[in-house]
Write a structure and sequence with these properties.
Blueprint (H helix, E strand, L loop, with lengths): L2 E6 L7 H14 L4 E6 L1 H4 L8 H16 L7 E4 L5 H11 L3 H5 L2 H10 L6 H16 L4 E4 L4 H18 L7 E4 L33 H9 L17 H14 L3 H7 L5 H27 L2 H30 L4
Parallel strand pairs: 1-2, 2-3, 4-5
């Protein structure tokens, strides 16, 4: 079975876009390979510096991953900072990466252009090398990513091939593949922008851990469009189209079926039904997450189990790396 690696940052509350775009695929795909899922808290340090916040969000995210359906007996779920080999291998990757290569990474260029190079953390510059280490450490075969991560996968492949050529066969050269576009969920208050943790306001986010009342209120306050007809038209009716997409993704009904269902009805009917569908779908996930958070020792034991398996693979890779480098052992 191929080894598959996917990671997620604990940088804020998980919303419906995260769930449909990544987490639901992790759950459905856990039987199709030897899957490793990392909560990359060290990466999150480039964006968060409030003491304790990353730890709190890491625990919440772990609980949610298990509540969504990841089975710790099947999937290896671990916290990045629990495996010291990540940072050790990252340094090796930095030492074989050219400054020009790193400078061409769009993430650093975008952040530097937005906030200025003096205020942009060095960690943002070296982030792609840590990501390469995350992948190569586990000898991953497949790394499913979004289009925005394509450049990082290409760098990882280049570094693996460079190291293997220079020091001998050490790393599996991974194949990155761009995830098929699933249901694309947009902000409820700005239906032309993707639902994102970086949004200016949480009013447009359907957060998994929000109460049913809060999420229902957000949906019923969603921005809609001119006219009364309920039809899917992303250009002319982005708000209505977004609500139809959410309903379809969770109810399993096709867009055309929903258009027929809502024929002659108003936006209030659409919002009310979407709110009911979302609340009902998220209810068991939210309840299971809260149940796991109430027993943190059990949750930490589940993460410890994942860390033990991850550590076994990571330590073997790092030992081989050091040996091929010719470091004194």
């Amino acid at each position: 079975m191929p080894r598959v690696l996917s990671c997620i940052q604990p940088t804020g509350p998980v919303h419906l876009g995260n769930y449909l775009g990544a987490l639901s695929n992790w759950v459905s795909g856990q039987h199709d390979g030897d899957v490793f899922h990392g909560i990359v808290d060290l990466h999150a340090l480039t964006a968060i510096d409030t003491p304790g916040l990353i730890g709190k969000q890491t625990i919440e995210l772990a609980a949610m991953l298990f509540a969504c359906g990841l089975d710790p007996d099947i999937a290896t779920v671990f916290v990045q900072s629990h495996i010291h080999e990540h940072t050790e291998l990252a340094w090796i990757m930095e030492c074989i990466t050219g400054f020009g290569e790193a400078s061409r990474m769009t993430q650093f260029k975008d952040r530097a252009a937005k906030g200025g190079s003096d205020s942009t953390k060095v960690g943002v510059f070296t982030y792609p090398m840590l990501m390469a280490a995350d992948i190569l450490l586990y000898q991953a075969d497949l790394v499913p990513v979004g289009e925005d991560q394509r450049q990082h996968i290409e760098l990882t492949r280049d570094l693996a091939e460079r190291f293997n050529s220079r020091y001998g066969a050490t790393f599996n050269v991974p194949s990155g593949f761009i995830l098929k576009q699933g249901a694309k969920i947009y902000d409820l208050q700005n239906p032309t922008a993707k639902m994102s943790k970086s949004a200016d306001s949480v009013a447009g986010l359907i957060e998994i851990l929000d109460t049913p009342e809060v999420n229902a209120k957000k949906i019923k306050s969603a921005v809609t469009d001119a006219g009364r007809e309920i039809k899917f038209d992303e250009k002319e009716k982005p708000g209505v189209s977004n609500l139809l997409t959410i309903h379809s993704a969770l109810s399993g009904q096709s867009i055309s079926e929903l258009e027929n269902h809502f024929a002659g009805k108003g936006y209030g009917d659409l919002k009310g039904e979407v709110a009911d569908v979302v609340v009902e779908y998220l209810k068991p996930i939210r309840e299971k997450t809260l149940e796991l958070l109430a027993d943190e020792s059990h949750l930490l034991a589940m993460l410890s189990k994942g860390a033990a398996k991850a550590q076994e693979v990571a330590s073997t890779t790092l030992a081989k790396t050091y040996a091929n480098l010719g470091l004194v052992r």
